[in-house]
Amino acid sequence: MKVFFLAPAVEELREAARLYESQAKGLGDDFLSEVRAAMIEGVARRSSEALSSSTQSISRRLVRRFPYGLLYRVENNEILVVGVVPQ
Q1: Measuring CA to CA, which of 9, 50, 61, 67 is 20 to 30 A from 79?
Q2: CA 21, 27, 30, 35 torsion: positive or negative?
Q3: How, if at all, do strands 2-5 and 68-75 pair?
Q4: Does domain 2-86 have CATH number 3.90.550.10?
Q5: What is the DSSP letter of 26?
Q6: What pLDDT score does 79 carry?
Q7: Tens digit of pLDDT for each residue in 23-77?
Q8: How large is the C-alpha radius of gyration of the chain?
Q9: Domain segments of the chain as ranges
Q10: What's the start-to-end Cα distance of the chain, in Å?
Protein backbone atom coordinates (compact mmCIF):
# COMPACT_ATOMS: atom_id res chain seq x y z
CA MET A 1 0.00 0.00 0.00
CA LYS A 2 1.38 3.39 -0.96
CA VAL A 3 1.03 6.63 0.99
CA PHE A 4 0.29 9.93 -0.74
CA PHE A 5 0.02 13.37 0.84
CA LEU A 6 -2.53 15.72 -0.70
CA ALA A 7 -1.21 19.23 -1.45
CA PRO A 8 -2.79 20.90 1.63
CA ALA A 9 -1.32 18.18 3.87
CA VAL A 10 2.12 18.69 2.33
CA GLU A 11 1.96 22.40 3.15
CA GLU A 12 0.80 21.67 6.71
CA LEU A 13 3.66 19.19 7.10
CA ARG A 14 6.23 21.70 5.82
CA GLU A 15 4.87 24.45 8.05
CA ALA A 16 5.06 22.25 11.15
CA ALA A 17 8.60 21.11 10.28
CA ARG A 18 9.69 24.75 9.81
CA LEU A 19 8.17 25.68 13.17
CA TYR A 20 10.04 22.90 14.97
CA GLU A 21 13.28 23.65 13.13
CA SER A 22 13.01 27.28 14.26
CA GLN A 23 12.80 26.08 17.87
CA ALA A 24 15.88 23.85 17.74
CA LYS A 25 18.28 22.75 15.00
CA GLY A 26 17.37 19.27 13.83
CA LEU A 27 13.94 19.23 15.50
CA GLY A 28 12.19 19.71 12.15
CA ASP A 29 13.96 16.63 10.79
CA ASP A 30 12.99 14.71 13.93
CA PHE A 31 9.36 15.68 13.34
CA LEU A 32 9.50 14.48 9.73
CA SER A 33 11.05 11.20 10.85
CA GLU A 34 8.26 10.64 13.36
CA VAL A 35 5.63 11.41 10.70
CA ARG A 36 7.29 8.87 8.41
CA ALA A 37 7.33 6.28 11.21
CA ALA A 38 3.66 6.92 11.99
CA MET A 39 2.70 6.34 8.37
CA ILE A 40 4.82 3.19 8.09
CA GLU A 41 3.07 1.81 11.17
CA GLY A 42 -0.28 2.87 9.74
CA VAL A 43 0.45 1.15 6.44
CA ALA A 44 1.47 -2.03 8.24
CA ARG A 45 -1.69 -2.00 10.32
CA ARG A 46 -3.95 -1.25 7.35
CA SER A 47 -2.23 -3.85 5.17
CA SER A 48 -2.88 -6.53 7.77
CA GLU A 49 -6.59 -5.67 7.89
CA ALA A 50 -9.10 -6.71 5.28
CA LEU A 51 -9.82 -3.54 3.32
CA SER A 52 -12.55 -2.91 0.87
CA SER A 53 -11.34 -1.38 -2.37
CA SER A 54 -12.57 2.02 -1.26
CA THR A 55 -13.55 3.55 2.05
CA GLN A 56 -14.36 7.21 2.60
CA SER A 57 -13.99 7.42 6.38
CA ILE A 58 -11.23 9.60 7.78
CA SER A 59 -8.84 8.01 10.27
CA ARG A 60 -6.31 9.66 12.55
CA ARG A 61 -2.81 8.52 13.41
CA LEU A 62 -0.94 10.32 16.17
CA VAL A 63 2.70 11.31 15.75
CA ARG A 64 4.97 10.21 18.60
CA ARG A 65 6.88 12.92 20.50
CA PHE A 66 4.92 15.72 18.81
CA PRO A 67 1.37 16.96 19.40
CA TYR A 68 0.26 16.30 15.83
CA GLY A 69 -2.07 13.91 14.12
CA LEU A 70 -2.25 12.70 10.55
CA LEU A 71 -5.71 12.60 9.03
CA TYR A 72 -6.01 10.07 6.24
CA ARG A 73 -8.37 7.89 4.30
CA VAL A 74 -7.90 4.70 2.35
CA GLU A 75 -8.91 4.77 -1.29
CA ASN A 76 -8.28 2.03 -3.79
CA ASN A 77 -5.70 0.43 -1.47
CA GLU A 78 -3.76 3.70 -1.18
CA ILE A 79 -3.44 5.83 1.93
CA LEU A 80 -4.21 9.50 1.23
CA VAL A 81 -3.05 11.89 3.93
CA VAL A 82 -5.51 14.77 3.89
CA GLY A 83 -4.25 16.74 6.88
CA VAL A 84 -1.39 17.24 9.33
CA VAL A 85 -3.03 18.86 12.32
CA PRO A 86 -1.99 19.94 15.80
CA GLN A 87 -3.70 18.05 18.63
Answers
A1: 67
A2: negative
A3: unpaired
A4: no
A5: T
A6: 87
A7: 999 999 999 999 999 988 877 676 555 444 445 689 899 999 999 999 999 888 8
A8: 13
A9: 2-86
A10: 26
